[in-house]
Amino acid sequence: MIRDKRRVDPETGELREREETAAPASPPPGSTEPPSSSPEPTAEAQLAERTADLQRLQAEYLNYKRRVDRDRENARKNAIAATLAALLPVLDDIARAREHEELSGGFKAVAESLEGAVSKLGLTPFGQVGDEFDPRIHEALMHSYSDEVAGPTCQVILQVGYSIDDRILRPARVAVAEPPHSSAPSEADVADSDADGVGEAASSDDHAEAADASADEGRGGTSYDDNGSNDGGPSGASA
Predict the structure, then answer these.
(1) What CA dihedral angle connects 103, 106, 107 and 110, to 10 degrees?
(2) Per-residue confidence in pLDDT tens, the chain, 239 aa
(3) 3-state class (DSSP) for residue 68
(4) Which pTM does this prediction carry?
(5) Dist. CA 221–CA 232, nearest whole Å
(6) What does the alpha-carbon distance between residue 171 and residue 208 come to, in Å, rounded to a whole number?
(7) Which of 150, 158, 208, 235 is the most buried (most CB within 10 A)?
(8) In the 8-state DSSP scheme, what is residue 155?
(9) Coil, helix or strand for 42?
(10) How far, in Å, CA of 155 to CA of 147, rounded?
(11) Which strand (E) or helix (H) includes residue 208?
(12) Type and span of the H or E element at 142
């Protein structure tokens, strides 16, 4: 089928009018459309679904934010701890200079300023003479016995320990003193034990002598008759 789409009629030369596209035919008034396979969701159901989606997204965002904040805080603490750990030898030098009374003048002011700065960052020294020995925070470099302590005690602080928050940057190096062992036997106990041994030996000798005498008597010896006279011979011999 060929259609002439020229706007000017070649025979008459007049302008042709455009043919409007025909509208789709509407179904007759009496006809009914077949029902759809699934009913459309109501506005309440759509609202509940969108609300659940928003709540789920909000929960995921809050979890992500908490995780990021925790990781950022841990990174900050690790950086501070690494910096303070590098400054511990400087603090040790300051402590030794203070012990030898060499901390004076401008050096004293700088040392106190540094100690104040690290203290604000959370660095805390620990370890004093008389503290109870704790292997979690103390490192024992020397050991001795003393009657003046009731348990393992830090007797000498060789190097102060440092901590930040709940983290031990360096344990305190100490000399530990313990009470003497109470399980060792005393001299009185040893003397009593020796006396008991001697008594047992003497008793054993007495029993041995009695056994020998009994054996000799059984083998033969002096016998007496019924009248009490000694005939000097073996038992049962006749005159």
Answers:
(1) 120
(2) 667 777 777 777 677 766 555 455 555 555 555 555 566 778 888 899 999 999 999 999 999 999 999 999 999 999 999 999 999 999 999 999 998 988 888 899 999 999 999 999 999 999 999 999 999 999 999 999 988 888 999 999 999 999 998 899 999 999 999 998 744 444 445 455 555 554 554 555 555 555 555 545 444 444 444 444 444 444 443 33
(3) helix
(4) 0.53
(5) 9
(6) 68
(7) 158
(8) E
(9) coil
(10) 12
(11) helix 187-219
(12) strand 138-145
**Terminal CA-CA length for the chain:** 181
CA–CA separation, 197 and 126 (whole Å): 55
Please give the Cα distance from 88 to 1 (Å, whole number): 99
Rounded Cα distance, 84 and 53, in Å: 47
Q: Nearest 5°: phi and psi at 211?
A: -65, -40
Cβ neighbourhood burial of 71 (10 Å; 0-12, 13-18, 19+):
exposed
Q: Nearest Cα to 87, choosing from 66, 117, 43?
A: 117
C-alpha 81/C-alpha 168 separation (Å) is 10
